[in-house]
Amino acid sequence: MKPYLKAEEIRKEIREQLPVIDEETFREHYCSECMYYAGRINKKARCMEKM
To answer: Which residues pair with 31 in a beta bridge?
Structure first.
């Protein structure tokens, strides 16, 4: 399995630039359990994979 970055390891300045996940998608796809979920910044869920 490939190693991956954890949200805590990414600087806040970079996480702020990640794409926002809308709330409906967040709930439907269980984003909080995904390894690409970067947490909430400015009250918006962020994803490292979504482009």
So the answer is: none
Query: Cα–Cα distances in Å, from 4 out to 21, 24, 26, 40?
Result: 20, 26, 21, 19
3-state DSSP call for residue 37?
A: strand
The answer on pLDDT for 6 being more than 80 is no
- The burial of 21, by beta-carbon neighbours within 10 Å (0-12 exposed, 13-18 middle, 19 or more buried), is given as buried
What is this structure's pTM? 0.68
Sheet holding 44-47, edge to edge: 20-21, 44-47, 37-41
CB 41, CB 12: distance < 8 Å: yes
